[in-house]
Amino acid sequence: MGRKGYATSVPGTLISLLDADPDLAGGDLHGDDLERARLAARTRQHALSPGAWDAVAAVEPDVHHRGFFIVDGLLSREVEVLGRRAVELLGPCDVLRPWSWDEDGPHVQAEIGWQVHEPTKLAVLDHALIARIAPWPQIGVELFSRGIRRAHILAVALAIAHHQRVDERLLLTLWHLAERFGRVTSEGVVVPLPLGHQRLADLVGAHRPSVTTAMGDLQREGRVSRRDEGHWILHGRPPEQLRHQRLATAAMT
Q1: What is the location of CATH 1.10.10.10 in the chain?
Q2: Secondary structure of the chain: what % helix, strand, coil (to 5)?
């Protein structure tokens, strides 16, 4: 996936989780109560530079570190089993605990790696933060829902990987990513992610030459195109397998 150097972590200023993602308030916090919750939800922020990230070194056992909330940026988790690699992309509002892996439990051993693809900011989730936001349980519920959303996204990606044709997997994957990251423009739905052919191959479980051929076919059919900066543009409507009403409506405007 084009590793370039190593990501470095730089402690930053405090940030409130409710400023990073107002939806964590659950929609039922207002006025003074919202402000108190906002102040209680302040936590430390780490800034990551692009490159390979040693996530295990980021754990802070002395502060009962629970994980991270992605404020901004783009990360990928790479899971390799017997030479075959699967990739998960993570972005703003995702929750992760990158060092949580049961080395004694699995019968199938996997190598886990993390890549930072653009400057990324992480909010620290630790025991002290959890204690401070206890009077507002809806914040914890919403944080939990971010984990559920991530599991759902992975389940959809797994279902896509079972499609036999590489071009179908690619098109479905791009529309699936557009659901989270896409921007509707006059040209079509832009997926503003660094998705070269090798990264797409890792995402859909195919070899790079097959992806290059399939993407060429999709471009000739007018279903996708590529901007000069490398971003993919989706044209037309989402495939029936992934048609969510919000995205289908946006794509027709």
Answers
A1: 164-252
A2: 40, 30, 30
Tally of CB atoms within 10 A around 17: 25
Kindly report, as residue ranges, where domains of CATH 2.60.120.10 are found in the chain: 9-160
Phi, psi (degrees; rounded to nearest 5) at 79: -115, 115
Q: Which H/E stretch holds residue 33?
A: helix 31-40
Is residue 23 exposed (0-12), middle (13-18) or buried (19+ Cβ within 10 Å)? exposed
- Count CB neighbours of 232 within 10 A: 24
CA distances from 253 to 187, 219, 237, 244 (A): 11, 21, 11, 15
Both tokens of residue 115?
A: 């890549």
Residues 6+ apart with CB under 8 A from 96: 67, 68, 70, 75, 77, 90, 150
Domain 164-252, CATH 1.25.40.10 — does that match? Answer: no
Which sign, positive or negative, has the C-alpha torsion 56, 57, 61, 63? negative
**Identity of the highest mean pLDDT range in 46-60, 74-88, 161-175:** 161-175
**Residue 42 backbone phi and psi in degrees, to 5:** -75, 140
Query: Residues of 199-218 as b/e, b for ≥16 C-beta within 10 angstroms?
Result: bbbbbbbbeeebbeebbeeb
More confident residue, 100 or 14: 14
Residues 133-155 as b/e (b if ≥16 CB within 10 A, e otherwise) read beebeebeebbeebeeebeebee
Q: Length of the chain, please? A: 253
Which fold, 9-160?
Jelly Rolls (2.60.120)
What predicted TM-score, i.e. pTM, was given to this entire model?
Answer: 0.84
